[in-house]
Amino acid sequence: MTPRKPLTTRRQLLGASAALATLGAPALVRAQTGPKIRIGYWPVAAGLPFYAAVEKGYFKEAGLDVEAVKFAGAQQVMEAMLAGRCDGSSNGTGSGNLGVGEIASPGLFKIIATNPSNATYVLDEFLVPKDSPIKSIAELKGKRVASGPGIQNRVLGQTVLERAGAGGTPVTELPIGQHVAALAAGQVDAVYTLEPTGTVGRLNGTTRVLEAGVIAKYILGDPNAPWHGGSASLTTEFIKKYPAETKKYIAAYARGIELVRKDPAEARKYLKGYTAIEGPLTGEVPLASYMLYNEFKPSDLAAFQKFFDLFTEKGVFEKKLDVASLLFKG
């Protein structure tokens, strides 16, 4: 199979370019006015474009007052959006978690960007202790396995186990920051987790990657397929109330994505303070890819829909969700 071409070589940031042009004026000219924009995130590497946009001042340069609100899990980000305590989510927030919120409150949000990952753009992985004799996911049958918190992580972990030959193995939810320690202490035999967890464990010499890119392989059926597991979003309430700020926010966010694509070494520095990786170690973390709402091809929508259809099949979604209807329309 021909490897999927890097998304960095694909279409221009359509629609965002015109808005980006407005950011050329000096920052002092554009005083921050308007609402405080509260964006929820949890400490995974996929949130990098948002972290970079905050730390590089892209939002401030656009005259926006953006507050990064940290949560322990993606489900809590969704719940905060439902409660009106957050105006959106950063990349890395589970798309499935957002889908649960959409069913609870139809029309809750619109997706402005996703972070597709696969065997090349690594985000998802199974880890085991460094000296574990386990060589395949199938060998995890009957073992103690944990996942990150929230319905998306648990269901995906269980489904990968089923499809890799370890069906019937229960999965326990565990805060992602505890995964490496739990493996090192022998409390669990394996974890389904997200980067930078694998990098943390590898660098401190306690864990190793059993298999990466597992969702593309076992859920989508193609190691190179794009798993749109996380999404940056804005609530429809915010979009309708603040159309001008919405346009500026998306343009500034697009600058964060552009930085990751064009200068990943520079962007990686902004993992510090938002994830468990700091200093020179930020250069070791594998990165997901990124796709803006206006960059989706039919094949991308199909892959995203297949992921969501799993949640309908598993009863997580009480009805089928149409991915295309959830994308922001510029």
Order of helices and strands: HEHHEHEHEEEHEHEHEHEHHHEH
Major sheet description: 6 strands, mixed
- The quaternary structure here is single chain
What strand order characterises the main sheet? 2-1-3-10-4-11
Q: Which regions have little confidence, pLDDT < 50, spanning 5+ residues?
A: 1-30
Q: What share of residues are in beta strands?
A: 15-25%
State the separation between the terminal residues, measured CA to CA: 34 Å
Q: Total number of helical segments?
A: 13
Instruction: Please give the share of residues in helix.
Output: 25-40%
Total number of beta strands: 11
Q: What is the CA-based Rg, rounded?
A: 19 Å
The structure class reads: alpha/beta
Shape: globular
Average pLDDT number: 91
Question: Keywords, please?
Answer:
330 residues, single chain, six-stranded mixed beta sheet, disordered N terminus, 36% helix, alpha/beta, five-stranded mixed beta sheet, 13 helices
Description of the molecule:
The chain is of the alpha/beta class. The protein has helices at 16-21, 48-55, 58-61, 74-82, 95-104, 151-166, 179-184, 197-203, 214-219, 236-241, 243-262, 264-268, 298-313; strands at residues 36-41, 65-70, 88-89, 109-114, 124-129, 145-147, 171-173, 190-194, 207-212, 231-235, 291-292. A six-stranded mixed β-sheet has the order 2-1-3-10-4-11, sandwiched between helices. Strand 6 (145-147), helix 6 and strand 7 (171-173) form a beta-alpha-beta unit. Helix 2 (48-55) packs across helix 11 and helix 4 (74-82) runs parallel beside helix 5. The longest helix has 20 residues, at 243-262. The protein starts with 15 loop residues before the first helix and ends in a 17-residue tail after the last helix.
